[in-house]
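Reminder: ligand-aware prediction takes two inputs, not one.
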Amino acid sequence: MSLKAFHSRIRQSIADENLQAALDNNARRRTEGRIDAFASIPDYQPRRARAHDIKADVVANLDEYLRRFISRAKENGIQVHRAADSAEALRIFLEIARTNNAHLVAKSKSMVSEEINFNHELEAAGLRPVETDLGEYIVQLRGERPSHIITPAVHLRRGQVGQLFHEKLGIPYTEDIPVLTNTARRVLREVFLTADIGVSGVNFGVVETGTLCIVTNEGNGRMCTTVPPVHVALMGIERLVPSLDDLALFLSLLPRSATGQKLSVYTSLLHSPRRPGEIDGPFERHLILLDNGRSRLRSSPLSESLFCIRCGACLNACPVFRETSGHAYLGRDGSLAPYPGPIGSVVSPGLFGCENFGHLAQASSLCGACKEACPVDIDLPALLLRTRAGETPDKCRPGIGLPAALKLGLWGFRLIAGTSSLFAAFQTLGGLFSRLYSPRRTYMRIPAWTGWGYSKDFPRLSDRPFRSKWRNIKQDVSPRESSAVSPEITPVVIPVVARPLEDQFTEELTILGGRVVKSAEKDLPGRLAEFLASKGADRVFVDEVGARFIAQGLHVLQPDPQIRVGVTGALAGIADTGSLVLVGGPGSPLTASLLPEVHVAILKSSALVPSLSDALQIPEVAEVAAGVIISGPSRTADIEMTLTIGVHGPGELIVFLIDDSDAV
Ligand code: SF4
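Here is what comes back for the chain with iron/sulfur cluster:
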C-alpha cells in the first residue's frame, strides 16, 4: 500500500479549475458568514472557553455521563442500543429493519453513518437507503461520498448538478438552482411519505433530560424523525452535553461556525416516540450509540479530538483543504477518510488506524488557522503534531507518510536546532553558502526535483542571522525604554440599549425571510381569513390553537400532503434569534408546521423570551415527546452556496403576533 493515490488525487484537485472555483466560493462565503454571525456575540471567547471546559469534563467522565444519559433516554421511551463497532451498529439496525419489515429508509445527514459505511451495507442487505439532505442526495446520485462534513456537494458546480438531474431524474437540463432544488423536493417528498424507517444523526445528547438534539436547515431532519413509523438515530458516544443550559451554549456556537447562522432553521428536541393521543411522530424511536474506537481514542494523547462538534469551520479555514477538498483525503488503501480536513486528519487515523490514515496529518501547514476557527478551541495543530509523532491509539511509527530523505533531513535539523552553538554555526555557514550560490539575487534557485520553489521563490539566507542582529538590538535598548513599549489601553465601553422583545423578534425573523403581522386577538379570525383567501387556501391543516381561529369548514386536523397551508400555535418566541418554539402533543401535530408550503404561527407577545437559553428553561420543552425551534423558512445553500428557500419544509413563515401585554 502506497501513498500514490493520495498524491495523485492532490495533483488532480489542484489542476481542476471547477473544483478550485467551487472551493474558493465555499471558503469565502463560509468564512465571511462566520465572522458576521459571531459579531452578535461579543463574549465569543469566554463562550468558547466554556464549551472547551464542558467537553473536557464530558470526555473525562464519559462513562458516568453515558450511564445517566442512557437511563434518562430509556425512561423517556427511547430504545437505546450500544454498538462497540460498525459491524455491531449495522447488525442492530438491520435487526430493527427486519422486525419492522422495512425496505425504504429515508436518511438525513449523519457523519456516523459515513463512518460505518451505512448506505453501502444497507444496499448489500437488500434495503433502499435514500439520502434526503440535498447535498447528500446529489452525491449519492453520483455514487460518491461527501466532500465536506457540512456541505457534501461543495466540489460541484451547478452545471454538473443540472447534468446529473437530467440523466438520473429525467428533467430537461437546467442550471437554475431553484428548479433543481424543487425537483429534489418533489422526488424526496414521496420518499418521506412512504419510508418505513427514518434515520438521522444526533448533534447533541442532553444528559439531564435524555434529549436528542438534531439541527438541520432544509427540514429533512424533521421529516426523517417525524414522518416514518420508526426513527433510528445514530450517535457517537462522545456527543453529550450535561444540561439544557449547556445545549444553549453549544447551539450558540455550532450554527454560527458551520453556516454563519445564529440558529439553524430547525433545531429538533426529541424525547420519546409518539405518545397516546398524538397523530404524528414515530411509533418507535431507537438510538444506536456507537463507540467504534472512541474509548481507545479517549485514553490516548488525541482525546481532545473528541470535543469536536462537527461544525466544519476548521475545514473552511485550512489552506490545504481549500485547495484539495475532502475527496483528496485518501488512505493508503485508496479508501476515502470518512472525516476530512484538520479534524479528520486526527480523527481518521485515531479511529480507523494510523497505518492507513496517519499520513493525512502531514497534509497541514500547521498555520494554526484551524485552531483559531474552532468554536471549542481544540488545539488542532498540537493534535496533528501528536499524530505525526505516532501518538495514536495504535501507536504508529513517527513521521508516517514522510519520504525517507525528508525524515533524515528533519532528524538532522532536530539535532542541529537542539544545540544553540551548532545552530549558530550552521546559520553562518548557510548564509555563506547562499551568498556564493546566488551572489546577485535575493532568492535561491532550487532544483525542480526537490519540489521546492514550485510556486514561491526560496529566499536567500540572511548574511546576518537573527541572533547576531538581536544581540545588537539588546545592547541598544535600555530596560527603561523596553518597558515603555506597551502603552495603557483604555477599554471602550459600548452602552447596551435594551430593545423591546417584540421589535427584536420582528427584526430578526424578517432578516431570516419570515414575516410578522401584529394583530389584536379579536381581529385574528378576520386577518387569518383574509390571508388564507390571498393564498387561495380552501383547506388548512391546523393544530388546536389554529382550530380556534379558523372557520370549521376550512380546517383539517389530520396530516394531508395536499394541503398547502398549516396554522399552528407557538409555545414561545425567541427575540434575539427570531425563532419560534413549538412543542408536539395531543392536538399539536408538529407536521402542521412541516408538511405544508406555508406555515402560519400564532404567537402571543407575552410568550416572547430574550434568548434560547430562556426558551430551553420552559418546562414543556423537556416534557413533550418532541419539540422544534424554527428559525425562518426552510433553506439550503448546497448548490454553489446559493441560498434557496423552501426545500423540504415550508418556504414561507408568517407569524401573527397577538399583543396580549395587557393580559393578566
Ligand atoms: S475540530 Fe473544531 S472547527 Fe473542526 S469541525 Fe470540530 S468543532 Fe468544528
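The CA atoms of residues 401 and 447 lie 23 Å apart. The pocket of iron/sulfur cluster is lined by residues 257, 308-314, 343, 373-376, 378 (CB under 6 Å). We will return to this case in the review session.
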